[in-house]
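Cross-check.
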Amino acid sequence: MQLDEAYQQQLGHWRATLHSGAGRIGWKIGLNVPTVQEKLGIDRSVVGHLTTATLMGADGSHSLAGAEKPMAEPEIAIEVGPDGTIAGLAPAIEVADIDRPLEDVGQIVAANIFHRAVAIGPSVDLDRAEGIEAILRVNGEQVASADAGSTDLGATIALVDETLREAGESLQAGDRIIAGSLTPPAPIRPGDRAEVDLGPVGRLEVSFS
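Predicted model, tokenized:
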């Protein structure tokens, strides 16, 4: 499947989800690892969507029932301001379910890039992540860390904006963009707790059943 067709399928599902009563949250960056991109024959990350249909509740818990290979991804969420500016940053955890081989990028994009659920913390008044260490913990134990400043936040917004315009949609002020996993994703199972700590950006913990 070609990427343009894949985006039309994905956005068709997004529109149907909104029409059924879900709220718009924003967008997600996927396949942001260079080795994965090389394997799939692409030269940049791809874009998925986020709605309240997959937003974790206020209790910060999520059921993994039916998941094949669930993973927790620590991310930084960008709050988009007017004219594509950065209005704030927040910690986020995406739950991805790697339920198909990494082979057909079109099929992956059409199915919203393994997305299962997302938790996003409150935004803080920051527009840069330089010097911030991202720490991922599972059950209180640190399993990975990375430089959150290595993500080019302005370029992330531009990529989402361009991708949406090419697909006939648009980025809006107030949208949130989770900017891709900051560390290798961590496998999770029922009973686990995952935490992302982004220092001044904030900390977020979710639990799984």
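The helical segments are 3-19, 34-40, 105-110, 153-166. The mean pLDDT is 95. Passed to J.P. for a second look.
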